[in-house]
Design brief:
By secondary structure, this protein is an all-alpha fold. The protein has 26 helices and two strands. Helix 14 runs antiparallel to helix 15. The N and C termini lie far apart (47 Å).
Length: 450
Amino acid sequence: MPRRLFKPAFAAAVALALAGCYGVATASWVIGSVEGGWIYKYVRPWTFRPVLVALVISSAAAVLLSIEVKGRGVHRLLIAWVLFATCAHAAMHAGAPARLQQLYVSREANSFYSLSQQQTASDLLRRFNRVRLNAPHHARSNMPGKTILTYGLELISTDTRVLPWLVVSLSNLGALLMFVFVRDLFGDTRTAVYSAVLYLFVPSRVFFFPLMNTVTPVVALACACLLVKWLRGGRATRAMLFGVSLYGLVFFEPLPLVTGLLFAALSALAIYRRWISIDRFVLHSCLVLATFIVVSEVVALATGFQLLFAFRQIQSHALAFNLIEARPYPVWIIANLGEFLFATGVAQAVLVVAAPFADRPQPGAGWRDWIDRPIAVTTIGLLAVLVATDLAGVNRGEVTRLWIFLASFFQIPAAYFCARAPGSGPITMVLTLTTMHTAMALAMVRFVVP
């Protein structure tokens, strides 16, 4: 991006993010739609405390961001960021209307825990649809993966004071997968670190700790990592692992399958750049599908769980829910985008548009020189996923919680934009505004009712 355009684009992102913080502070930003029948309610007035918490967190983050990222030290730096972010999340949630333990054990807020106390894992899988129909609301509308993960966490600890933080820690470890995905795709360590940092502070992810939706981006990012490693290396074993990961994604949460549009765009880029030949790609794609089918059949034989049948039942439940709750499609086509802006971070949403132009154009560069770059393909792919998910109309409201996985991927263009600037000033400013937005909203809005 020419220098004369870089600063205005960043200034616009900062100005709109400040306006968003003002909207939260004055409780004038409606999160959802009154006409559409769903909003997240402000339950507390503004106080200076969350701003102070955000400033302390941002000051400490600025020190970490000033550390040069290179060599093997980057792995230690990432671990430091995960630990720091976990402490920051604890500080922000200290001012929230409900405590994490209270939310985790709540039958209404986190029915996966309630279901895990009532059913064994084997019985859940063997009689999934029958069990699901008698389960609390969220467990009734989800695949069994989140409940199975709850069983797994209880192998580590059964203490309800510890379990919520195991969920938070697992979700935060997604930053490592974000780093691997972006580094392998862009070949740029700085962009990868910045993407991991912004992932750790995605507003919607922090709002909904310790619900299982915050783990969904970890599963989606695992698929993305395996995809890029397969496309880069062209190995059959990686294609098979990608097929296994797709089964895991559907088993845990089918909605992120819409990222297939992004995956298709990255596959086209890989073929165009000859990371993988088209013949090998087609052959391996068949191997991915075959692996998915084999895993499905093996699980069905071993446990009695039928993945596709369960998926159809969950899909029917989601469509029926919109009718029962009287959430009109036309209203939410627009309202969902406004809520997604709140969930993603205003600055990040603005920089999505600017990121593909953040590099200086080469003399005589044409449109093909712009479009075949990973950042351009990633941005176009993400926008396609957003539009397709919105137009599908399956989710009408509550996208702050349901689209956490997509908000996580939307941090990448902002990280790329900031990585093109000298110094750590831009990324520090974006992170500061995001933290302030998150801390204020978390203290003022009841996102989860225990």
